[in-house]
């Protein structure tokens, strides 16, 4: 006998998920019904399919990451986030992506150009294989991008390998260069002529011979072999509007170490060795100048200048203050100090400040022979060019001593003097230096100071904010002369 439903209620099918449990909630008596076997089976099948899809993408390598942007939740915990996260810089054109495991993290650019992105993905796969084959505990890879004439794109991957104690044990660089019109990856033969390698060998050897930290090792067989005129030694490079940078491994050069040396070469020196055509290679000094285009010529300007450095501590203090106030200055460097502080010299250049020539050893040029005068200037230019990629753009004669003969010999470089002398070298007093500037400065002035004195570095902490508060734009000498519309000529003196 079939019984009718004794209860007059409707079933409201609401699903409550807890793991894989599925229950019905009934109006009326509210009793649970047993899970249906077919629902459990269906859900199990879906989970198996999802696992298969995930495994496919993981095995497929890079494709799973092509849509991911770099977020703040880095899964890799071996290194601090700040050491492995790609830091976007102002004006960077390409989206930053990444691929990571417990053993490596690789940042790379996403250009949205199919041919280029395919080549980049192949290079990233190469890094992942290198990491898997390496004995290192963790590999971190970051990159920079540079363009030249808006026609060529350089990508520089910088890899660092760490041991279990998070100590850097090795580093290497891998570079790529693309022609943007065709989106093709260029071979070295398409970038450089064969004659480049003889030039590069001589240039690199001179560069390290002029570096006080490496000079003693430049006669070693390891170094001579690693810098011979063979293209295999000069295959990692990048090119921008100002210079070509060669990347060389310290371990390969000197037998040990994890430093990657970046050796800049001004494009003006490379024109005859290039297969590619670069307009900027014909006018490097103009393009590499410190002149900014966002200055207001109708507002007052002052050029702070510093002689006799660079100094290992004081110069960096001054640079930090300038950076804080978006200010720039000109540093007239002495050859021996520049040679001993090449890292500071590079920081001056990187800060957008102008580097001037103050001779090799601060000799009175009027007391020297013609050849000696030329040697005093050339010595500094050689060091500055090796470190920054460009020569000095002005010269200040020591003691302000010059003659018509000096002007004739140095006829390719403007001679820069001053109209506010702080006499900081004599007083060595912070307060007197501050007063000398603030009480006497006016629009268009060039101020003379010396960054070898700690009292001057301390004075700058007060001078810069006070001048900025008074409405002055703190500029390089080159910027000052440009915006004052002065006709700058080699051998001429400024101000008169």
Polypeptide structure, described:
The chain has 496 residues and is α/β, with parallel strands linked by helices. It folds into four domains: 51 residues, no CATH class; 106 residues, 2-Layer Sandwich (Heat Shock Protein 90), CATH 3.30.565; 96 residues; 194 residues, TIM Barrel (Alpha-Beta Barrel), CATH 3.20.20.370. The chain is built from 17 helices and 19 strands. It has a six-stranded mixed β-sheet with strand order 3-4-5-6-7-8, with helices on one face. Strands 12, 13, 14, 16, 17 and 18 form a six-stranded parallel β-sheet that branches. Helix 3 links the parallel strand 4 and strand 5. The N terminus is likely disordered.
How are the secondary structure elements laid out?
Layout: E1 11-12, E2 25-26, H1 37-60, H2 81-84, E3 95-100, E4 104-110, H3 114-133, E5 138-148, E6 152-162, E7 168-179, E8 184-185, H4 188-191, H5 196-209, H6 221-226, E9 237-239, E10 243-249, H7 250-254, E11 260-266, H8 284-287, E12 301-307, H9 314-324, E13 330-333, H10 335-340, H11 342-350, E14 354-357, H12 370-388, H13 404-409, E15 415-416, E16 420-421, H14 424-427, H15 430-438, E17 445-450, H16 454-469, E18 473-475, H17 477-483, E19 493-494
Parallel strand pairs: 4-5, 12-13, 12-17, 12-18, 13-14, 15-19, 16-17
Antiparallel strand pairs: 1-2, 3-4, 5-6, 6-7, 7-8, 9-10, 10-11
Helix pairs in contact: 9-16, 11-12, 15-16
